[in-house]
Amino acid sequence: MTQASGMTYKSLQTVPCGVLIFDQQGAISWLNPALEGMLGLNNEQLVGQTLEQFPFTTHRGLFKGTGLMHLFGSGVEQERWLHCTVVTPESTDPQIHTVKYFQDVTELVRLQEENQRLKKQVEELAITDELTGLANRQSLTRALNAQVARSRRYQNPLSLAVIQLNDNQSEAPLQDEVILEVSRYLRDRLRWVDLIARWQHNQFIIILPETNLQDGQDLLDKIMASFPELLLPAQHDASRLQLQCGLAEWHKGQDARLLMKQAFSNLAESDIVSNHA
Questions:
Q1: What is the pTM of this model?
Q2: CB atoms inside a 10 Å sphere around CB 81
Q3: Which residues are bridge partners to 135 per DSSP?
Q4: What is the rounded distance in angstroms from the CA atom of residue 95 to the CA atom of residue 103?
Q5: Distance between CA atoms of 122 and 104, rounded to whole angstroms?
Q6: Angstrom distance (rounded) from CA 162 to CA 263
Q7: What is the spatial distance between Cα 204 and Cα 13, in angstroms, rounded to a whole number?
Q8: d(CA 147, CA 250)
């Protein structure tokens, strides 16, 4: 060991981050106490080890490159997330070829995971679409499952309508102001018992309880017929708007997923549209 390398080891002995040094053959030649604490392993267990003979399979990430490294333990409390930075110093000591610095970011990763979990939970609890105030996808799915279960039990009629709003001159996404006005138009023409939800940016789904296919079609015909009366803000060209509908009736043996699949299939096959005048 040269005097310079001795100074290097001494200076790295007390740094708060973990330090791991590899020799020219890729074997571990030294690690500091901070890294020993992070890994739960000591100098004697690691010095001289190479990737090929490394006995701790959960810690093989020590030999990988830079970035985030996940170390597995026997339990959640032994799991560690370390962020690694690699430096190749100018050293004549063959024992100091590569130096890796490790920062324990376990708590930060866990906080990010918890934030993601809470965000997902909030999204699942939300029942309305942010733009239109209509029911959202989660709310629609829950309501449709309940209505299908009710129809299955009592054999009540049930229909499902999918309405798609198109711009007949462009494939660009419709502006929010247009979506909002059309959502109000549709909602105002439904019965109190019907549930309308915004499914995609330009798609709406309507649950029609106690409604057979013919009654559902009659309702959609009225919606389509009065669509040219929709008023939009002056900056929007209403003449480019077009409504397209797909309608399906629940049949014995269908679940909510199959009923929705049939409604979307009928939408794709439908050639009946209403153009805004």
A1: 0.59
A2: 18
A3: 128, 197
A4: 23
A5: 29
A6: 6
A7: 64
A8: 10
Nearest to 262 by CA among 173, 174, 138, 162: 162
Distance of alpha carbon 229 from alpha carbon 185, whole angstroms: 10
What whole-number percentage of the chain has pLDDT above 90?
63
Tokens describing residue 124:
């699942």
Question: Do residues 229 and 222 touch, judged by C-beta distance below 8 A?
Answer: no
79, pLDDT greater than 60: yes
With cut-offs at 50, 70 and 90, classify the pLDDT of residue 250.
very high
Lowest mean pLDDT among 62-66, 216-220, 249-253: 62-66
Task: Indicate whether 159 pLDDT > 80.
Answer: yes
pLDDT in tens, 33-71: 999 988 888 889 999 999 998 888 888 889 988 899 888
Kindly give, in sequence order, each residue whose CB lies less than 8 Å from that of residue 178, ignoring residues fewer than 6 positions away.
Answer: 165, 232, 236, 241
| Helix axes 256-269 and 137-154, enclosed angle (nearest 10) | 110
CA angle 4/6/9 to nearest 5° reads 115
Joined together, the tokens standing for residue 136 give 């959202």
Distance CA 203, CA 183 (A): 10
E-state strands within the chain: 18-22, 28-31, 67-71, 80-87, 98-104, 158-167, 195-200, 203-209, 241-249, 273-275
Read off the tokens for 184. 């109000």
Instruction: Please name the residue ranges forming H helices in 49-168.
Output: 106-125, 137-154
- What's the DSSP call for residue 119? H
Closest CA to 18 of 2, 3, 40: 40
Q: Give the list of residues 6+ apart from residue 95 with CB closer than 8 angstroms, or none.
A: 1, 5, 21, 23, 29, 30
A 10 A CB-CB count for 66 gives 12
